[in-house]
Amino acid sequence: MVLPVPLNRWYNDLADVDRLREILADESFQRAVATLKELSLPTASVLSPDTTANSNKNIWLAGYCDFVKDLEKLTKQPTTNQTKQIEEWTM
Prior knowledge:
By secondary structure, this protein is mainly alpha-helical. It has a domain at 28-41 and 48-75. It contains 4 helices and no strands.
Protein backbone atom coordinates (compact mmCIF):
# COMPACT_ATOMS: atom_id res chain seq x y z
CA MET A 1 0.00 0.00 0.00
CA VAL A 2 1.28 3.44 -0.93
CA LEU A 3 0.57 6.23 1.50
CA PRO A 4 -0.40 9.69 0.24
CA VAL A 5 1.96 12.59 0.77
CA PRO A 6 1.17 16.23 1.45
CA LEU A 7 0.65 18.16 -1.77
CA ASN A 8 3.75 20.33 -1.33
CA ARG A 9 5.90 17.19 -1.00
CA TRP A 10 4.34 15.76 -4.17
CA TYR A 11 5.59 18.72 -6.23
CA ASN A 12 9.07 18.49 -4.65
CA ASP A 13 9.55 14.99 -6.08
CA LEU A 14 10.10 15.81 -9.75
CA ALA A 15 10.59 12.13 -10.65
CA ASP A 16 7.00 11.35 -9.61
CA VAL A 17 5.66 14.40 -11.43
CA ASP A 18 7.52 13.44 -14.61
CA ARG A 19 6.41 9.80 -14.35
CA LEU A 20 2.77 10.82 -13.93
CA ARG A 21 3.11 13.09 -16.97
CA GLU A 22 4.41 10.10 -18.97
CA ILE A 23 1.52 7.91 -17.81
CA LEU A 24 -1.08 10.51 -18.74
CA ALA A 25 0.50 10.91 -22.18
CA ASP A 26 0.50 7.14 -22.76
CA GLU A 27 -1.83 6.19 -25.60
CA SER A 28 -3.19 3.12 -23.77
CA PHE A 29 -4.06 5.21 -20.72
CA GLN A 30 -5.77 7.84 -22.86
CA ARG A 31 -7.75 5.15 -24.69
CA ALA A 32 -8.84 3.61 -21.39
CA VAL A 33 -10.00 7.01 -20.10
CA ALA A 34 -11.86 7.73 -23.34
CA THR A 35 -13.52 4.31 -23.21
CA LEU A 36 -14.70 4.75 -19.62
CA LYS A 37 -16.00 8.24 -20.37
CA GLU A 38 -17.84 6.98 -23.44
CA LEU A 39 -19.42 4.13 -21.48
CA SER A 40 -20.64 6.54 -18.83
CA LEU A 41 -22.24 9.02 -21.24
CA PRO A 42 -26.02 9.16 -20.95
CA THR A 43 -27.85 7.75 -23.96
CA ALA A 44 -31.49 7.75 -24.97
CA SER A 45 -31.77 4.08 -24.01
CA VAL A 46 -30.60 4.67 -20.44
CA LEU A 47 -32.61 7.81 -19.80
CA SER A 48 -35.61 6.85 -17.80
CA PRO A 49 -38.36 8.48 -15.79
CA ASP A 50 -36.28 7.58 -12.74
CA THR A 51 -34.46 10.87 -12.16
CA THR A 52 -32.25 9.27 -9.50
CA ALA A 53 -30.80 6.80 -12.00
CA ASN A 54 -30.24 9.60 -14.52
CA SER A 55 -28.54 11.75 -11.89
CA ASN A 56 -26.30 8.88 -10.82
CA LYS A 57 -25.22 8.35 -14.44
CA ASN A 58 -24.27 12.03 -14.76
CA ILE A 59 -22.44 11.98 -11.43
CA TRP A 60 -20.48 8.92 -12.55
CA LEU A 61 -19.41 10.74 -15.75
CA ALA A 62 -18.44 13.87 -13.82
CA GLY A 63 -16.33 11.72 -11.51
CA TYR A 64 -14.31 10.37 -14.43
CA CYS A 65 -13.81 13.84 -15.87
CA ASP A 66 -12.78 15.32 -12.51
CA PHE A 67 -10.39 12.44 -11.80
CA VAL A 68 -8.49 12.92 -15.06
CA LYS A 69 -8.39 16.71 -14.67
CA ASP A 70 -7.09 16.37 -11.12
CA LEU A 71 -4.35 13.98 -12.26
CA GLU A 72 -3.35 16.49 -14.94
CA LYS A 73 -3.15 19.22 -12.27
CA LEU A 74 -0.59 17.10 -10.41
CA THR A 75 1.75 17.36 -13.41
CA LYS A 76 1.93 21.17 -13.27
CA GLN A 77 3.41 23.28 -10.52
CA PRO A 78 0.69 25.37 -8.90
CA THR A 79 0.95 29.09 -9.35
CA THR A 80 1.16 31.16 -6.24
CA ASN A 81 -1.49 33.81 -6.09
CA GLN A 82 0.13 36.82 -4.59
CA THR A 83 -2.54 39.21 -3.52
CA LYS A 84 -1.85 42.64 -4.84
CA GLN A 85 -2.45 45.38 -2.36
CA ILE A 86 -4.81 48.01 -3.55
CA GLU A 87 -2.96 51.30 -3.76
CA GLU A 88 -5.48 53.29 -1.74
CA TRP A 89 -5.12 50.86 1.17
CA THR A 90 -1.40 51.49 1.46
CA MET A 91 -1.75 55.24 1.98
